[in-house]
Design goal:
about 150 residues; Alpha-Beta Plaits; about 25% helix; disordered N terminus
Length: about 150
């Protein structure tokens, strides 16, 4: 699906538009609240991208508990909105969950990957009680770009 780009800062036909999808397994012996983690990771991604001169086009995170807790924690951000939109906090701490992250930004895919990796390392340092395992990460140019590259890490 072609991506429409009306922002001159992003360059011709999305040449600087990168996409990244990843899945992260999180767990903690005593459980954790989701929204502080989502907020910290979102801010860290935004800061890392600003450091390299890139803007987030959109960012979506969902954290789904794997056992005993109903609901899904969410964070959404679009360039057209000034702040992150966090969903309601889950009723109970989560012991194990799956975090799905999807981001599009005005950066080359490999630069986006490096920025998100630095943001994740920062976030996991803030929450040392959480055990983290990266299940899958891929970065690529969206369909319709003049150069296509997809790299998957598992």
């Amino acid at each position: 699906m072609p991506v429409e780009n009306n922002d001159p800062k992003l360059g011709d036909a999305g040449l600087l538009l990168g996409c990244l999808n990843c899945t992260i397994q999180l767990s903690a012996l005593k459980g954790f609240t989701c929204n502080p983690i989502l907020r910290e990771l979102g801010e860290a991604i935004r800061n890392e991208l600003r450091t390299i001169g890139a803007d987030i086009c959109d960012l979506k995170m969902t954290l789904a508990p794997e056992i005993d807790v109903d609901g899904i924690a969410t964070l959404n951000f679009a360039r057209s909105k000034p702040q992150f939109e966090l969903g309601p906090e889950l009723d109970e701490p989560v012991e194990r969950g799956r975090l799905n992250l999807r981001v599009r930004a005005g950066a080359k895919p490999d630069h986006l990957h490096a920025a998100v990796t630095r943001a994740m390392n920062h976030t996991w340092g803030i929450f040392p009680q959480i055990f983290v395992r990266l299940s899958e990460m891929e970065h690529f140019r969206p369909a319709g770009s003049s150069a296509s590259e997809t790299i998957t890490i598992q």
